[in-house]
From TrEMBL:
Organism the protein comes from: Paenirhodobacter ferrireducens
GO biological process, one term: mitochondrial respiratory chain complex I assembly
GO molecular function: oxidoreductase activity
Record GO cellular component, one term: cytoplasm
Residues in coiled coil: none
InterPro entries hit by this protein: FAD-dep_OxRdtase (IPR006076), FAD/NAD-bd_sf (IPR036188)
Domain FAD dependent oxidoreductase: 6-370
Top-level taxon of origin: Bacteria
Pfam families documented for this protein: DAO
Name this protein carries in UniProt: FAD-binding oxidoreductase
Protein's UniProt keywords contain Nucleotidyltransferase: no
Keywords: Membrane, Oxidoreductase, Transmembrane, Transmembrane helix
Transmembrane annotation, as ranges: 7-24
Length: 401
């Protein structure tokens, strides 16, 4: 580890690893890069504990384009991340996403979102209840007013694989990784100048990138900056359905999609099982080290909604469960990307509110562009800039899962 780096990235999960990869692979950038990760096991990283989905069904164009690029990145992953002949695959499952609406307001949102998605080039269809019942016969569609189904560009993949592959490639390209924790950030006027690590080491930095996930707000405060990002707990449940409906679909070779019920409860196939989750009724910030699953959610929220939506989900056996943290943006539940307007060598990539894994490849590339070129050259993420918070202008995302 050097005493000074051009770029210090705080956080080595998917955001930090992808940013490091894009910087190191860009021939126009010849700077030094250090990634600091507090937990090299990644046991409690949001990346490792996520449900590993990628989709294009969002309500604003930037997120749709991020999803489209992320899908291509996953497709090309073996080529991009090849190291000494090893070509890692992410085991991508093209299952699609299915949003179901049973209120007029939900219908309005689906139609508005669909217009944005189609304009951005996403292949998404709107179905009435009859088409939905034909495609997925196991579903109860009596209350359905409209459904939105992704024909391509959506599915799930190996969450730790994308992080590990980007990290290994970045290291092969010269990026330094250190298992340590940033405990202080030095600042002189309107510039950050370096970090102090828990080990006692001090490292100078030309630019600091905040890729600390749910701890992003805490890292920003070290630099004297306020960032509306805090953890939110999400419990995931894996269950077995004796009368599994997988294989009964009349689309996508019989594969079922990730279904988002109007209640907010979602589920998708997970091998021979299914995985499900939802938004807790009392969605309060947990302690940073609180990863205890919220067991009552299964009996009180998840199972009842699934049983109501499909008779195949009435008799279920819970197999396993775990909890992870979202890096939750309390302002508008959308990513915060870009330089601080005053402390311009401090860059945010925070607050993705559950979408960070799938958005890491595109956001990492965008942050690389800010550093290497001073502006975006691919997807314009200007609407995600930090300034919107001080200006009180939310950049809302209506398709939150």
């Amino acid at each position: 580890m050097r005493e000074q780096y051009d770029v210090v990235i705080v956080g080595g999960a998917v955001m930090g690893a992808c940013t490091a990869y894009w910087l190191a692979s860009n021939p126009d950038f010849d700077g030094t890069v250090l990634v600091v990760e507090r937990d090299p096991s990644y046991a409690t990283a949001s990346t490792a504990l996520s449900a590993s989905g990628i989709r294009v069904q969002f309500s604003n164009r930037a997120n749709v384009e991020i999803g489209l690029f992320g899908h291509d990145f996953i497709r090309d992953f073996p080529d991009l991340m090849e190291v000494e002949g090893d070509r890692p695959s992410l085991g991508y499952h093209p299952g699609g996403y299915l949003f179901i609406a049973n209120t007029d307001d939900q219908v309005r949102i689906l139609r508005e979102n669909h217009a944005v998605q189609r304009a951005a080039g996403a292949e998404v269809e709107l179905w009435d209840a009859d088409k939905l019942k034909w495609a997925f016969p196991h579903l109860n569609t009596e209350d359905v007013l409209l459904a939105s189904y992704g024909l391509s560009g959506e599915g799930w993949f190996d969450n730790t694989g994308i992080m590990a592959g980007a990290r290994r490639k970045a290291r092969a390209l010269g990026v330094d990784f250190v298992a340590d924790e940033v405990v202080a950030i030095a600042r002189e006027g309107n510039r950050v100048t370096g970090v102090t690590l828990k080990s006692g080491a001090s490292v100078g930095a030309g630019t600091i990138v905040n890729a600390a996930g749910p701890r992003g707000g805490r890292v920003a405060r070290m630099a004297g900056l306020d960032l509306p990002v805090e953890p939110r707990k999400r419990t995931l449940f894996v269950f077995d359905a004796a009368g599994t409906p997988e294989g009964t679909a009349r689309v996508n070779d019989g594969r079922l999609p990730l279904m988002i019920d109007p209640t907010g409860v979602w589920c998708r196939p997970e091998g021979r099982f299914f995985i499900a989750g939802g938004v807790p009724e009392n969605d309060l910030p947990p302690e940073y080290d609180d990863f205890d699953p919220d067991h009552p959610e299964w009996e009180e929220q998840i199972w009842p909604a699934l049983a109501e939506r499909s008779p195949n989900f009435e008799a279920l056996k819970l197999v396993r469960f775990w909890a992870g943290h979202y890096d939750y943006n309390t302002f508008d539940q959308n990513g915060i990307v870009g330089r601080h307007p005053e402390v311009t060598n401090f860059i945010f990539q925070n607050g993705f509110s559950g979408h960070g894994l799938q958005q890491g490849p595109a956001v990492g590339r965008a942050v690389m562009e800010l550093i290497a070129y001073g502006g975006y050259r691919s997807i314009d993420l200007s609407d995600m800039r930090f300034e919107r918070i001080a200006e009180g202008r939310p950049f809302l995302e209506q398709a939150i899962v």
